[in-house]
Each structure stands twice: as structure tokens, then as C-alpha cells.
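Hello support,

Our group uses your service weekly, and this is the first time we've seen a run hang past the timeout. The protein is histidine kinase. I'm not sure whether the cause is the sequence or the server load. Input pasted verbatim:
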Amino acid sequence: MGRYVEVIKLRVTAIWHLLSSRLLYKLVILFTSIIILVVTSLTVISYQMIRKESVKHSIDSTANNLLLVNRNLQDYMDGIAQYSLPQLQYDDLIHAIMNENQEYASRMYLENYLRRLYFGRSDLDGISLYLVQEQKYYSVSRESYNIASRSGYDRDIVNQPWYSTVLHRTDNQYFQSLTLTSTKDNHDAQSNSFMAYHRVLRSIASRQPQAILTFYVNPSTRDTILQDTSIDAGEHLIFTDANHIPFYVDDPLFYQSMLASGLIKQLQDQTSDPLTWTIDQQRYMVMYNESTSNQWTLIKPILYSQIYEVANTTRNLSYLIGAGFLLISFALVTVLANEITRPLGHLSKQMNRFSSGEFEIEATVKGQDEIAHLTRHFNDMVRNTNELINERYRMKLVEQNAILKALEAELNPHFLYNALQAISTKALRSGRLDIADMVDNLAQTLRYCIGGKDIVIASEELKHIERYLSLQKARFGSRLQMTIDWDDSLLQLPIPKLSIQSLVENSIKHAVEQVSEPVMITITAHLTAQDVLITVRDNGPGIPPDRLEQVLDSFEQTFIEREGSHIGLQNLHTRLQILYGEQAGLLIASDQTGTELSMYIPQGGA
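Update from on-call engineer: The timeout came from a worker crash unrelated to the input. Re-ran successfully.
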């Protein structure tokens, strides 16, 4: 897991380095981030505001709706209670009840009374009258398409829970819910009734209960009233009495969940609304309204997700609009940033060319902004730099020519002095004809030395060395011996004039002149992997280590600082580096077996 996280970090870092490698990407990221931040902030703020407004609107609209509907239900229940009162016929009704078992007219009166009540309202499924003393009932109900009247004895009614309840109520009435009741009275059960209303009829004189009048109410009018409270997806509606016994539930299972969670009990103790209730990870806002008599309660749980639907729709629409706006803005930002960075990119490219040594470049100037101002200054800098470089280059050429001429001036007098001395000695000692050869060699040598060319091919330099050594043999005789091992492919190699002579002169001075034994000078030239290596070796006594160190140190001195007896080698080393660069130069190796001087030149002599 740690390795996987590390790989992700590396990839994120690589992407970030890529995006931050160009100014264009940085500008696009900057402006895009600002746009995303603004759009997201506005969307979140508007979403929160719309959510609050949605909750407030839902509370206000639901509270007003429940209040209105509950008033209508209260009026409906009050109307049923009022309809159950005998009013002006109360004495006749009580008389008929008390004499029912003795008078046929009383029995007919009771049946007709129930029929009139039944036909007086269209929302009744049936009416029954239970005679307390006789434990006898009269009932009127609709069976199929006929209105049936029945009577009989039922001694089990006294055992029904509602029976004792209604007898002990001071208001002599009781609303019994049949919504979730599974068992009802056998003789008066109505399958579609949602409520049974019981009214106790008492004797005026004794106040003893004489009969119980019961209305079985069908749900038609109730449903018509409750239609004013729309139940959308995620909403529920419960209609209960003061004891929270349900008279209407749209979803019995949901009501059972409310009971199991203790929400109904919590509503009894609730003093303010709304109430928030969570079940199955769903949050409900529970709105409720109690009637003015505190007898009826309407409960309406509403899913918060349903309340927030408008806010969510608005938020999603805002995100959609924001995404479109972001795409348009991204395109505009990319175009604008590209317009800003394109001149900078062109200027950067010209700067790279300038840093690589191209001094004839010039950046295009567009507009009057800061970038154009910077470009103008860059062009001015290039022109000024070019002028300075040209001036410096000319000065350097003059300086190098002066150095070369000075080197030649140092070399030629030294050679001429030795050559003339050898000729004079030869002439005085023998007067032989070979002096003519020496003079001829001297003439050709002088002509070669004072020639105008600074660079010659190797074959010319070797011919010059042969003439030079023939003159030196006149001085040293058999003590001076020479061999040449030169690669034929290097005979046309361009080399500095008098370069090999400087190396041979060093061998003569530090080897031939220092000993009386014969000294062999070997000249070789061959190719290495990168250079042409020209070597002059002698088998003389060698150069002492401290002296060799001084010679090598002198190679690092400037032309003005040079002095001593090794100016020839110093000058040759300098000429090589002037002509071919720092990769050219001299190497010296010396011990008791001899001295080896190596001159290395880049292949091709470029």
C-alpha cells in the first residue's frame, strides 16, 4: 500500500512539474483555479441559501396547510357529534328505548329513527343503537344495494374496550378508530369504515345510560378533506386523536416504524415544531398540527431530501452552467495566455540562440506593452554585444599576430647565430668543398624561415628539418644521429611552421651538447583516437625533475611574464593553443634514459 501511495505521489509530482514548466500552463492553471473557486463558491453559497429557503418555505406552507385541513376535520367531527344528538326528539327517543320490550310502536319508532339518521347523511356506512338494559341492538346498514334493518341481542358488547370507555366519559361521546383495528363487533362490522362514533343516551331524570348510538363513518368525506394536503414522494400523512391513536395512515408500516422509534411519544412531549427524525439513514422533518380543541392531530413527515430537491436541482444546474462557463473561460484564458506567452516564448528562443553564440539575431517587436519594451531592450543588447565582440575579436587578432611575429623574431636570430657559427668553424678547419652544401642548405633554411606562411604541411617541415640537421651535423659530426618514422597519411597534415624544429632544438641543447657520446634523435608521427601525436625523442641524459617542473609551469605564463632559456617551447605551446584551441599543446616526459617531447594537434588540424 505504501509503495502504491509513493507511486501516486511520484506521478502527481511529475505532472505538476510538467504543468509548471511553461508560463502558459501556469497562467491557465491560475485563471482556471480562480474561475473554479468563484463558480464553486457561488454555487455552494446559493445552494445553502436555497436549502434554507426551501426548509422555511416547506415549514410555512405545510404548517398553513395542516392548520386549514385540521380545521376542516374538526368541523367534520363536530358535525358528526352534533348529528348524533336527538335534540327536540330526545324525550320521545328515551321513552321508546325504555318501552321497547313492551310496545311495538316503540320498536318501530326506533327503527324509523335510525333510518332517518342513516338517510340524512351520505358518509355513514351504518348506524346501530345498543340498549343497555336489554343488551339488545338495532342497526341499519347497506347490504349490496339494499338498506337492511336488523335487531337482536348481543351480550358480548359489554366486554368491548370502547363500551366501558364511552360510559365513563363525561361528554358521553367517544371516537373509536377502526383504521388499524383487526377485530370488530360481529353484528355491526363495516369493512370500509375508518371510524365508529359512540354517543351515550341517558335518562334526563336519573342520568342513567339507556342506550349507545353508534355511527360507522366511511372514509369518503375524510379523504376529500385530506386531499387538500398533497402527499408527494418522500412524504407521509397521519391523522390521530389526542391520544395519538391513528384514524388515517397512508402507510401502516411507516406508522409502525414511528411507534417503534418512539416518535409518537416524542410528539406528545414536543412543544415546538418541526421535529427532526432519522430512520434507516433518512432524515425527516416532522410537521404536526393540533386542533383548537386539542382533540385531533395531523402529522406529516417530509424527507429532507425531498425538501432539498429544488436546491439540489438548482445546484446541479449551477454546476452544469458553471462547467459550460468554465469551458468557455478556459478557451478564452488559453487564447489570452497564449497571446501573452507567445512573444515571451519567441524572445526566450532568441535568447537561447544568443547564448549559444549566434550574435546576428533580432527578436520581432509587436505592440507597445511591457513585453515589447523588453524585446526592444534585448535587441539593443544584442547589437551592443555584437559590436563589442567584433571589436574585441579584431583586437585579439591583432594581438595574436603580434605574438606570432614576436615568436618568429625570437626563433630566427637564435638559429642564424648557431648556423653561421658552424659554417665559420667548418671553413677555418678544413676548407673543404662541402661548405658549399652547407651554404646552400643555409640559404634554403633562411628562405623557409622568413616565408610569410604561418601554417605549412608536414612534408615541407620535414624537408626543412633535414636541411637544418645537415647544418647541425657540421657542428656535431657523428655525435648527432637522426631517424624519422612518419605516417604517410600525415604528410599533408597542416602544422605550425618551425614547430618540429623547436622540439629538435631542445634535444640538441639538452642532449647532444651535454654529452660526448652519440645521441639518437627520433621523430615520429601517428594518429590517436582524437589527436595527431608528433613526438621527438632523444636518448640523452634527460632533464632534471626540478628543471622539468619549471618548464611545465612556464607553459601557464602569459607572453609578458616569459623569461629564461625555454622560451622556444613556451612559444610553441602558446602558438598551438592560439591556432587550435585549449585541446592542443605540448607534453614533456624525461628521465635518465632520455627526453620525449610530444606535440598533439586535433585530428584534421582544425
